[in-house]
Specification:
The protein has about 425 residues and is of the alpha+beta class. It has 3 domains: about 110 residues, 2-Layer Sandwich (Alpha-Beta Plaits); about 90 residues, Chitinase A, domain 3 (Roll), CATH 3.10.50; about 160 residues, Trigger factor, domain 2 (Orthogonal Bundle). The chain has 13 helices and 11 strands. Strands 6, 7, 8, 9 and 10 form a 5-stranded antiparallel sheet that branches. Helix 1 packs across helix 3. The longest helix is centred in the middle third of the chain and has 35 residues. The radius of gyration is 33 Å and the shape is extended.
Length: about 425
Amino acid sequence: MNIKSIEKNGNQATIVVEIDKEMMESGVSKAYLKARKNIAIPGFRKGKAPRKMIEAMYGAHVFYEDGLEEIFPDVYKFAVIDQDVKAVGRPNLTNMNIEEDGAVTLTLTTDVYPEVTLGDYKGLEIEKAEATVTDEQVQAELDRMAQNVASTETVERAAEMGDTANIDFEGFDNGVAFDGGKGENFDLKLGSGSFVPGFEEQVVGMSAGEEKDIDITFPEDYVENLAGKAVVFHVKCNKVTATNVPEQDDEFAKDVSEFDTLDELKADIRTKALEKAQKQIDSTFENACVEKAAENATAELPNGLIEAELDNQMERFAYQLQMSGYSVEQYAKMMGGDMATMRNAFRGTAEKQAKINVTLDKIIEVEGITVTDEDIEAEYAALAAQYEMEADKIKGMVPADELTASLKNRKAVKLIVDSAKAVAPKTEE
């Protein structure tokens, strides 16, 4: 192979590379052997047609594009990596010229990583809150624990706030039942606010077997066909269930924890809540430090870099949705859009992350951040312990170069954060 020219214009590079006849022939030959099993020519059994016969029928260069695919990894290494062209994604083939002697001249265009000019990234002043836990937060956690161990019983009395009423209901608009307004054997926690405002309050006082009509006016911001309308719900109460919440005392503490007293349980709740709050504050501070360093840097991001980050964001979001039993397509429809709308919604975040990525890469370069073999082995060991797998299996799943890049990034982030100065948040008026 031979490089004829490399031209860079902003965030794009154009590479003209010549591939000799022998190398091109090796790719074409591989392409022919793969393709011939699906080609039928009169007079030959399927998969047995000679290459020259196929070329005579379909053109002398019929296998050239597929042949180029066969040798493209070698072309990419020579024309891009060995020439120190920092390409973003796969280059585009914009021209292929086949010479009389069988050599091929390719013109490749590619987005390249931008030139980054760092601004301030050390000694940044970043707001950082102080971790606090209120008595109300501790009490809320105690209440949650008490609800978890609460018992229920069916009661022969009128329903009260806090009870669960099992009801049948149907809604009518001017005497006509409307879609979505009917339910049977529905357990309604009174006071939960899960129904239209005013509904639960009118169920209070009903006893098992009682039926009544409830007048409701839907909010103005409700679904279009019902917004602002006055309707009637016919409700039948089937059963009333009371929740018996245990008293929060030392016996309660013994039942729900390893502590002997309520005071000890409260202290433990406060300690754990403080630890959680501190982790959140530290994470927020770290993100703010890195984002500020990226804001201070100057770089013209190529579209290919943003698109690549968009792919990553969409892939991660799709995985999260999959854990909840949804696909991205289903979610997009639920939100009243399509995949293009979804992708566009992530663009701002992708641009921001892409800027952070190139900023960290530049800091790694300027600071000469390196990763040792010991660092890599320690990380493999940590991952093995985290996922309870053998280190060798982890090594087979996570390539060393990916791990190295991740560790360098972490070191760059640590450098920014460790040098930053935490300042108290501004008081809001």
